[in-house]
Task: structure prediction
Amino acid sequence: MESGSHSKVIRFSIIVAAFVLGSCANQASANIIFETEISSMNLTGGPFLMPLASDPANWLGDSVDGFGFVESGVLISMSSQRPFNPGPLSTGQTTAWPDGQGGPNQQLEIIDPEALHGQLFQVDSFFDVFVDMTFMDVDPRPGRDYAGMPDGATLSFLDIGPASINASYQATFDKDDANFGLLPPPTGVPYVGFFFTELYLGGDINGNGEDDKIKFDISLMYIGDGFTTAEFYGVVVDITTDPPFIIGGSAGAFGGPTTASSTLQNPVIPVPGALVLGGIGVGFVTLLRRRRTL
Result:
């Protein structure tokens, strides 16, 4: 009986070791997926020149086809963080695969952080964001008021989205770093998006008989460790005119605190040597559902 029991223990240990070693050998093609969310963001700055004053006769001097420029403070926040009647969540996904593999896939391989440490990865990351935007008239000059509104007025737009933002970059896998060093993007790499995002103003600012809208051409959002700086480029348009505006970038600083989280979807194994030496027979594969702040 003792001999039979001993034999079973030996066979089981061999199976565990073979599984672990087989997993390690596969790490060159590991595909890593995170589910992500931006839970809070408060971007503020200004004043920025917004073409929201009505000036059909161009008496202000710098107007463009009847649109006058108003110095405006700007606030952008996640719709989901509103304290009352919050809007939709801003969620996304990040997929990373070893450099040279050719592209990602949706298969969730078991990963061994020790085996992947120091490898270069290609990373694609995106969010579908819903934001609230507020424009505040802070311009003391005569005539520089939002069309049809008193001096110092505020324009607010809720639940704008989903606006897609995307980032593509390379990162080195670090077994000891948050998100294995794959998130957030390296310094200087932005999330790019907000293409064709439009805010309808519900009125005719420049007096040509056509209702107008704010249209964003592109945004660049540099999401770092707990802070975001951003640039938004766009126009106020109707069919025939398009005076541009810039929020952030060369027009002045625009940014603020940001909270984001990630949940790793892949199963992860601990260090192979520790498994065999410790004599662990079960529970050697764990699915990480770790919430990490980006």
Remarks:
- Residues 2-293 form one domain.
- Residues 2-25 form the longest helix (24 residues).
